[in-house]
Structures are given as structure tokens and as C-alpha cells.
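Review form for a predicted model. The reviewer records the input and the model, then writes brief findings.
Reviewer: anonymous (R2)
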Amino acid sequence: MSLPTGATIVGIKCSDGAVVATDSLVSWGTMVLTEKGVKAFKLTDTIVLASAGLTSDYQMLVNRLQAQIKLYELNQKKKIGVKVLSKMVANTLYSRRMMPLYVQTVIVGLDADGPALYTLDMGGSLIPDEYTAAGTGVRTAYGVLENDFKAGLTVKEAEEIAIRAVKAGIARDVQSGGPIQVMVVTKDGVTERIIEN
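Model under review:
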């Protein structure tokens, strides 16, 4: 599916956590708006959401989720899990399917059930997987993922694969570019770093 703005988003589930990497170019068609866009967001101490698509739509989605997470944790008196949060996003997207949010979303995290990764389209489909890619650079990124992924990767190994996959997307997709944002989720929390491309 073609989106109005470009991106290359990669997520990998690991033996000891999960990794997500994104480009940082925000474009509208052939016009570059900025190379300092943020496409990955820390939602909790152990859950990260990354999104390709219309910047205003995924920013609104993140703001709404941050409020819903607080309400859930107050009502349930426990931390939200990755699957519960992913289902919350799926329900939000499904409820808007007639006037959709133009987003492709990747959620990675770690909870009592272990590492998890979910991909969601703008209709609210919820797909658990070992690795995924989203955005306009998806075809090239998948080439790297399918070649390099193997079961039991550590976050350190997965981080390098994710960076290579995003770099491949940037190299072949004119709507992807800029520095690469990498977020790693482990039992110690979320760490972030920026890789100059």
C-alpha cells in the first residue's frame, strides 16, 4: 500500500528483547520537510511503537495511547503488557477504518510473557511476528531481514541487522533518509541511539 509520506521501519524480536530502527526523513510526496523526524516512541519502560505514514496521524495516535495507557494502569493497578497495548492500537485503527489513520505501525516490547513484536496496518490487523518492516522502503529492508535473520538473535546482533536493513531502504527509496533512530528494549528498559547515515 502506498502512503502519502515515506519511511523505512524495521522491527526484530530477539531472545533477550526487541529492536526497532527507523529512518528520520519526513516527506510529502517528492518534497522533503525535514531529516529530523521522529518515527519511534517510547510508550512505557518496556514498549516502543514505531510508525510509517502521515506524521500528524501517528503523532495523534501516540498522544492518545499515552493517555489510554495511564487510564489502563490506574484501573487495572498493573503495568500494561505488549499484547494488550497492541490490541488497544488495533481497536483504535479498526474503529477508524472508514476514515483511517494513514499509518503502518510496529510495536516491540518485553513483558512477563517475554519479548514480542506486532505489526498493524491502518485497518487494525494485528500480526505477531519474529521480524517485520513497514513503509515505502519495505521491499529492500525485507531483503536484508530475510537474508540475515535467524532464530535466537541477541539484541546486539539484531541491532546491526536492523541498521543494515534501514540503510538498504534508504539507499533504494527516495522517500526514506536521514539519520537512523534505533531503540532497543531489554529487561533493563529502553535505550536509544542515533546513527548518522
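Findings: Residues 53 and 79 are 28 Å apart (CA to CA).
Further findings: The mean pLDDT is 94.
Recommendation: see findings above.
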